[in-house]
């Protein structure tokens, strides 16, 4: 089986003590004179993902997992190290990489006055997809994700946050990516919508062989979906194994440990921090 993704000693730092980025930061993050130290978001991270694998990355807010996704997606450049997607280098061959991947994040953006159909057809044209077959696939994917047919033609601004996230996932699936990057894809969704999205992720992986990199705060989601999981804290990977092996690695205390307990054992922290403590990495 070939390697879908190779991340080798990747390092990414943000900000300088006198840079404009830090001028905009809240005073609580500064040393009192409007300056703040640089932040290492991704610190010598290395791992690889096999083709057809679902690989999870767990970490609290500010741990570096979203920065890692952006580096793989060619949205940021690593300061050091290398990333290859199916043998293509994200720095030297970004266009080739972009043809192989798609990304869904919690901050997905749309033309809110347009309908899901119009938004997806616009996105499809960027990948060279047009015509009646594309329209049929849009309807098929959106209804599979639980949207009613009438909602497909209504403005996005009339939809809930959860429904908009489903459209973002549909937009990513439309291009049939070989590597799908899912950055907190079920955040803001109700339990039923979460199950529908998770079912589509499994189907995409099982029936189409799509390789998936998933970041999530949902421990049960990670446990049920992922073949392997990396736990990241402070920009570093502190553990990487199958969900079962990670749970067997800690003291059971007479019961089957959960991934939440594994995370607490390895990092000493809860998975989700308070929103106002989050570092924008």
Inertia-based shape: globular
User: What share of the residues does DSSP label as strand, in percent?
Assistant: 15-25%
Q: Say what the CATH topology is.
A: Rossmann fold
According to CATH, the homologous superfamily is P-loop containing nucleotide triphosphate hydrolases
Which descriptors apply to this entry?
six-stranded mixed beta sheet, disordered C terminus, 10 strands, Rossmann fold, 10 helices, four-stranded antiparallel beta sheet, 281 residues, alpha/beta
Question: Could you please describe the fold and organization of this structure?
Answer:
With 281 residues, the protein is an alpha/beta fold. The chain has a single domain, classed as 3-Layer(aba) Sandwich (Rossmann fold), CATH 3.40.50.300. 35% of the residues lie in helices and 22% in strands. It has helices at 20-23, 65-72, 94-100, 116-126, 132-144, 161-174, 191-208, 219-225, 243-248, 259-267, and strands spanning 3-14, 39-50, 54-58, 80-85, 88-89, 101-104, 179-183, 211-215, 228-233, 236-241. The chain has a six-stranded mixed beta sheet, sandwiched between helices. Strands 2-1-4-5 form a four-stranded antiparallel beta sheet, covered by helices on one side.
Quickly describe the structure:
The protein is of the alpha/beta class and 281 residues long. Helix content is 35%, strand content 22%.
List the helices and strands and how they pair.
Blueprint: E1 3-14, H1 20-23, E2 39-50, E3 54-58, H2 65-72, E4 80-85, E5 88-89, H3 94-100, E6 101-104, H4 116-126, H5 132-144, H6 161-174, E7 179-183, H7 191-208, E8 211-215, H8 219-225, E9 228-233, E10 236-241, H9 243-248, H10 259-267
Parallel strand pairs: 3-8, 3-9, 6-7, 7-8
Antiparallel strand pairs: 1-2, 1-4, 4-5, 9-10
